[in-house]
Design goal:
The structure is a single chain. By secondary structure, this protein is of the alpha+beta class. It folds into two domains: 207 residues, Jelly Rolls, CATH 2.60.120; 34 residues, no CATH class. Helices cover 19% and strands 27% of the residues. It is built from six helices and eleven strands. The strands form two sheets. Strands 1, 2, 3, 4, 5, 6, 9 and 11 form an eight-stranded antiparallel sheet that branches. Strands 8-7-10 form a three-stranded antiparallel sheet, with no helix packed on it. A hairpin with a 4-residue loop joins strand 1 and strand 2. It is globular, with a radius of gyration of 18 Å.
């Protein structure tokens, strides 16, 4: 008898590609035909109750749902593809599905420019071919030439603060560092001023690399790199853009 765990069986013969993006040569891994039963995974995802509660989705521009299934086999495979040991950023880590629609949706300032995640991000795109378009963009912040933000101030950040003649107080605490990021990197003036995703960039953000959305494609990248959904306003008005997301931490 097939169980929910069986539903997420992994194809051991998936097609893997590794790219290195930007001046920082940030690694991006894609694995096509990742799940053995892609259609069944999508069917499961579309059958779940979704929520847009802030406590669940944060600043994600859509809805989320979850299934309590052991994700360790998936994480083990992702670790091998990433060529470094990874563990879940949350305990427990359920299967989490995300859905985005452009129908009557108002994006806030944070959603109209790139963002960062805690560490390593892994995502499986689940849409069938006919509703796959766009993907995920990786970006460079033009005013500072940064492509990535470290979890704590590093030499590049300290050098930038010196050039800007900023007080050392900005970098002495996590709150100060977040204030630095919000004013110097994620300033509202740098966001797309229209009600749409940043996509091909603007005068403040340069698109470095587009990870193209394909059915049953896994992508893995450093979530500290600036990234954003690449979705045109006319897309996903009727159908969800559906994916499974995993937030991971690389063991040092």
């Amino acid at each position: 008898m097939e169980t929910e765990q069986d539903l997420f069986a992994i194809n051991t013969d998936c097609t893997v590609e590794v790219n290195y993006v930007g001046e920082g040569k940030h690694k991006v891994v894609t694995a096509d035909n990742f799940y053995l039963h892609h259609e069944k995974v999508l069917e499961k995802a579309l059958d779940l109750p979704y929520t847009n509660q802030f406590e669940i989705i944060g600043n994600f521009p859509g809805v989320r749902a979850s299934v309590n299934v052991d994700t360790q086999p998936v994480i083990n495979t992702i670790s091998k593809l990433w060529d470094a040991p990874l563990q879940s950023a949350f305990n427990p880590q359920p299967i989490v599905f995300s859905g985005i629609t452009n129908q009557n949706y108002k994006l806030n300032i944070g959603q109209r420019q790139p963002h960062i995640d805690q560490d390593i991000t892994a995502m499986m795109w689940l849409n069938p071919k006919e509703t796959c378009s766009g993907g995920t963009g990786l970006y460079r912040h033009k005013p500072t030439n940064l492509e990535r933000l470290s979890q704590s101030p590093n030499e590049d950040i300290r050098a930038l603060a010196d050039r800007l003649e900023l007080s050392d107080e900005f970098l002495k605490s996590q709150d100060g560092y977040e204030n630095f990021q919000n004013s110097m990197i994620f300033n509202p003036l740098f966001a797309c001023q229209e009600n749409r995703y940043i996509n091909d960039g603007n005068e403040y953000w340069e698109l470095l690399h587009l990870i193209e959305m394909k059915p049953n494609r896994l992508m893995i990248f450093d979530g500290r790199c600036f990234h954003s959904q690449y979705i045109q306003p006319h897309q996903y008005v009727e159908a969800f853009r559906v994916n499974q997301i995993l937030y991971l931490t690389q063991l040092r």
